[in-house]
Amino acid sequence: MATPPDIRHGQSLRDLNTFGIDAHAAFYLPVGGVDALRAVRAAPALFGLPRLVLGGGSNLLLQRDFDGLVLHMANRGTVVSGEDANSVFVTAQAGENWHGFVLWTLEHGLPGLENLSLIPGSVGASPIQNIGAYGSELAEHFHSLRAFDFSSGEVITLAKGDCAFGYRDSVFKHALRERAVILEVTFALPKRWQPNLRYAELAAEISVRGIAEPTAQDISDAVIAIRKRKLPDPAQLGNAGSFFKNPVVSSAKRDALLAQHPALVSYPQADGSYKLAAGWLIDQCGWKGKSLGPAGVHEKQALVLVNRGGASGADVLKLARQIIEDVRLRFDVVLEPEPVIV
Ligand SMILES: Cc1cc2nc3c(=O)[nH]c(=O)nc-3n(C[C@H](O)[C@H](O)[C@H](O)COP(=O)(O)OP(=O)(O)OC[C@H]3O[C@@H](n4cnc5c(N)ncnc54)[C@H](O)[C@@H]3O)c2cc1C
Question: Do the beta carbons of residue 320 and residue 337 sit within 8 Å?
Fold first, then answer.
């Protein structure tokens, strides 16, 4: 099979990552479907290159130019694909915009994903870190996905149990890393829907709006309003959302920290461990609103690192390393970056 004709060389990625980092890809291919991936696998000059699958570029930090092949997911389409006694199944192609997809489900009277409104990025990337927000995570309504496996050249179907979903984690960050390209994702949306107001800030927003029995659309509207208040819009200020995961510690460690820092923000987990609010730890180290060169920490949310203009990936990483070190020295807790660093 010949090299795909729409391969581009030296493509700028600046407008394709929400940090706005000015890096270039040696080879770049928009992927409209599985045929493009099969063609890459069949072209020896391309198959041997390092690969980066790109969706919306909203969970990515590009350290430097990418000396390989960027596969930019561009397949589109959303359909109701079936139902059973409890659920309606909806299948969306990987290149669909996530928030656009959530709105599509609501417009079609299919609630379930409303708490995950306005998360940037693509449908295809949503299982990678099991996106989550406002008391919900993708795994709750995930049914299955289809992916191209670069190792075998086959299209594989994975059910929920195959995906090893965890907190900002899945099999795609481990065994299937650099192997599977997600082509489409199917969700099981409940026929008997209940509002999910577990997240206190969301419940408060609904209450302030005077809504006693919220619809899924009310919840989506409230989530959108909170997110717009709290998070910088990447179109105005480059960022990748939360730059650090909330660290999970043992109850003994949490008790020791609480004794030293009575205002410590922590959340009990089902297994007896505690999740600490990384933003609080960073704020305590005095980083909120501060900058190191052209990279900075957002004024309203210490978990979000921002590109104040012309920052390179190395500038952002330098700031991230300094924050990790300060938090470690003060709390003996090691923060882990959430975005994929390439
Ligand atoms: C302002 C802001 C707020 C955010 N808020 C949240 C939040 O509340 N909760 C949350 O969980 N995340 C949040 N994020 C992070 C981000 O939106 C999600 O991680 C999103 O799923 C990333 O999608 P993407 O298409 O942009 O992925 P990319 O950044 O393009 O890619 C991320 C990773 O997924 C891989 N990938 C992408 N597509 C595919 C595919 N089809 N097949 C295989 N691998 C693929 C890439 O290779 C890369 O490793 C936020 C980001 C921003 C900028």
Answer: yes
Backbone φ and ψ for 294, nearest 5 degrees, come out as -85, 0
Tell me the per-residue pLDDT of 27-74, one tens digit each, with 9 for 90 and over. 999 999 999 999 999 999 999 999 999 999 999 999 999 999 999 999
Which strands make up the sheet holding 154-159, listed edge to edge? 78-83, 87-93, 180-190, 142-149, 154-159
Spatial distance between the Cα atoms of 342 and 321, rounded to a whole number of angstroms:
16
Q: Is 295 helix (H, G, I), strand (E, B) or coil?
A: strand
CA 98 to chain centre: 10
Number of Cβ atoms within 10 Å of the Cβ of 8? 14
Number of neighbours of residue 175 by Cβ within 10 angstroms: 10
Asked whether the predicted pLDDT for residue 1 surpasses 70, the reply is no
* Residue 28 CB partners (closer than 8 Å, separation 6+): 7, 8, 9, 11, 69, 70, 72
Distances (CA, A) of 29 to 21, 57, 93, 253, 276: 19, 15, 17, 47, 40
* Beta pairing, strands 340-341 & 60-61: parallel
Q: Which atom of ligand 1 is nearest to the CA of 120?
A: 17
Pocket lined around ligand 1, Cβ cut-off 6 Å: 18, 52-60, 73, 94, 119-122, 124-126, 128-129, 131-133, 180-182, 231, 234, 239-241, 340
Place of tokens 């870190």: 129
CB 190 within 8 A of CB 111: yes
pLDDT tens, position by position, 289-330: 999 999 999 999 999 999 999 999 999 999 999 999 999 999
